[in-house]
Amino acid sequence: MNKKIITPDYVETLDLGLLNRCNLSCPLCPWTRLDIRNTQKTAHVEIEPLINFFDKLPNLRIAILEGIYSEPTLYKYFKEVVKYFKSRNTIS
Fold it and tell me: Are the C-beta atoms of residues 65 and 81 closer than 8 Å to each other?
């Protein structure tokens, strides 16, 4: 069996959730159905460690700021993240 180690150089696309909060109440979402928003603490990553992480991915070309269980624009450093990706010519 040939195992391949994924290195930071290998990463070209990143699917990223910036926080675990949303201000909507969609009826089919687990956040609403299971009342998760009232039982889970808000979590987000500070901007410095996030940028340091991105800097270690030299071939990053696409960053998907997903919102499956969150609203990415609620992230308090959302503008800074978008500016960072723009400065790197990364599609986000």
Answer: yes
Side-chain half-sphere of 20: how many Cα atoms within 13 Å? 12
pLDDT tens string, the chain, 92 residues long: the values are 677 888 999 999 998 888 877 777 888 877 777 777 777 777 778 899 999 999 999 999 999 988 777 788 888 999 999 999 999 999 87
Amino acid code (one letter) for 59: N
Model confidence pTM above 0.90: no
H helix or E strand, kind and range, residue 13: strand 13-16
DSSP code per residue over 23-55: S---TTSHHHHTTGGGTS---B--HHHHHHHHH
